[in-house]
Amino acid sequence: MSAFVGYRVLVVDRISGRFLEGLREAGLEVEYRPGISRDVLLDIIKGFDVLVFRGGIVVDREVIDRGLRLRVLARYGVGLDNVDVDHAVSRGIAVVNAPTASSQSVAELTIGLIIVALRSLHLHIDSVKRGVWSKGLYKGRELYGKKLGVIGFGRIGSRVARLAAAIGARVLAYDVRDVREAVESVGGELVGLEDLLVESDIVTLHVPLTPSTYRMMNEGRLRLLKDDAILVNTSRGPVVDYEALLKHIERLGAVALDVLDEEPPRSPTLRKLVEHPKVIVTPHIGAETIEAMERVGEELLAGILEVLGVEAPNPRARSAT
Ligand code: NAD
Questions:
Q1: Residue 180 main-chain phi, psi, to 5 deg
Q2: How much is the pTM?
Q3: 170 in ligand 1 pocket by Cβ < 6 Å?
Q4: CATH of the domain at 16
Q5: Do the beta carbons of residue 27 and residue 310 sit within 8 Å?
Q6: Ligand 1 centre and the CA of 169: distance in Å?
């Protein structure tokens, strides 16, 4: 460990050891308090220069204003929807995250969920465990030749498209940015949102959570989906209207969700969905791979040290620990 460089870091979510070691090796003092209550956070934040968090807390105006010596807000992951970024920036506090680190992991999970849904794997696996040899009980379909509608053609959406195209899916894409070149590079077709919803066999959501994407998959848009279509969401829970989804579930082929409105799900609507045989839910594990977590740690450490003007620890010394 290097000499203390004068900066104190508060870590409020569960985070891997390697990243914490990196901070300490750079000479920062780390207080590791995963699961800390909001009241305690508000009480102690004034003593820290850096706040490191995942999705477990809301870093709003009050938290930011109490952080009298805050210099960096560091999101251990991608989404910044739990941070008041504008307010932080207006107070001269840098906001850093690791936007690319988990893209491959989320894209691979998305492809996995699509195949689980197409082959009813969740039902077969559950049946066999219960002693029922379910061969012939559930239908299976190929991804090859299916129309895959990708909504949000950014880091993750474009990777999902490339992976699916390699299997033989026909990619349709919709984005609010001009992504024509990226879509054409995977042999896909850029279309309007309505056309995508009407034509796709599988629709997969990869948009950020913003006012324009909140409840984007509402009653009107869910109604456009084909009977037997598959809907996949590995982006953010509030992008889908779950009351409306529940109304459409019987006519859809399957729904696969890695994210929900409320995690874990407790509301009657979400419980009904989660327990429905056509619904496949994973507990927000898109980025939960060893590789993604290591990459997040490396990107975030570099970002924090850059803002603070602290020299990065020797990576060889770090990997030897
Ligand atoms: P990105 O910013 O690279 O791509 C998002 C794309 O969505 C952009 O191209 C943007 O133009 C587009 N977009 C924005 N608003 C839109 C709208 N209204 N309609 C259509 N397109 C719109 O983001 P990314 O890194 O690909 O991440 C995508 C999503 O995945 C985010 O919500 C992120 O929080 C989520 N995510 C989930 C997990 C997980 O664990 N499941 C992990 C990482 C990221």
A1: -55, -45
A2: 0.88
A3: no
A4: 3.40.50.720
A5: yes
A6: 21
